[in-house]
Design brief:
N(1)-(5-phospho-beta-D-ribosyl)glycinamide binds at residues 12-14. The chain is an alpha/beta fold. The chain has helices spanning 13-21, 42-49, 65-77, 95-100, 121-128, 163-188; strands spanning 2-8, 29-36, 54-56, 83-86, 105-109, 132-139, 149-156, 190-193, 196-199. The longest helix is centred in the last third of the chain and has 26 residues, at 163-188. It is globular, with a radius of gyration of 16 Å. The chain starts with a strand and ends with a strand. The model has no long low-confidence stretch (mean pLDDT 97). The structure holds glycinamide ribonucleotide.
Length: 200
């Protein structure tokens, strides 16, 4: 099975969705490690409950961002990943990290990129007033949520939505999309040419 390393910063519901299927022989991938940028988060509890090894690499423990990025790279490399999945990881990974896992890092984002990149995709879409938002799974290429798009799904914005209600509905769709895309990548492979990414 393809070796998956999942990077997390928070609740870990996308991680949970991957863990729910990674034992299925037909899925083709197994979560072999979870790496967080902070201790004490639910995502780490989820990983530990599933018996998956974890590591924490916190920016504050390093002299600068470059040193943190190198430590993060090493912490992930230890697990020899075939694919690295950023699932609610709220920091940008650096060039050394991406060079170590070329075209092997994907990210899930709660908006229809290239609209509303960054840390507040749901809030920004709501304040813009869009009537449809959604989620995107992309290949990470060093820009802020700017890499080639692998898959997207739309979610209507309802008149009474606030940020939590819309984010919750997006996350239901997002979990399904992420599991689908990750499974297809580990089973069929991923090629990236410029702005275009293709599975299989
Ligand atoms: C997800 O909606 C993910 O798309 C978002 O954080 C949430 C994490 O949920 N990520 C970003 O906004 C990255 N720019 P989870 O911790 O329950 O998986």
């Amino acid at each position: 099975a393809g070796r998956l390393v999942v990077l997390v910063s928070g609740t870990g519901s996308n991680l949970e969705a991957l863990l729910a299927v990674h034992g299925d022989p037909g899925f083709g991938g197994r979560v072999v490690g979870v790496v967080a940028d902070r201790p004490g988060i639910r995502a780490l509890d989820i990983a530990q409950a599933a018996g998956v090894p974890t590591a924490v690499v916190a920016l504050g423990d390093f002299a600068d961002r470059a040193a943190w990025d190198l430590a993060l790279t090493e912490a992930v490399a230890v697990f020899s990943p075939d694919l690295v999945v950023l699932a609610g990881f709220m920091k940008l990974v650096g060039r050394p990290f991406l060079d170590r896992f070329p075209d092997r890092v994907v990210n899930t984002h709660p908006a229809l990129l290239p609209a509303f990149p960054g840390a507040h995709g749901v809030r920004d879409a709501l304040s813009y007033g869009v009537k449809v938002s959604g989620c995107s799974v992309i290949v990470v290429d060093g820009g802020v949520d700017a890499g080639p798009i692998l898959a997207q799904d739309a979610v209507p914005v309802l008149p009474d939505d606030d940020e939590p209600s819309l984010h919750e509905r997006i996350k239901v769709v997002e979990r399904r999309l992420l599991v689908d895309v990750v499974g297809r990548i580990v089973r069929e492979g991923l090629t990236v040419e410029g702005r275009h990414a293709r599975i299989g």
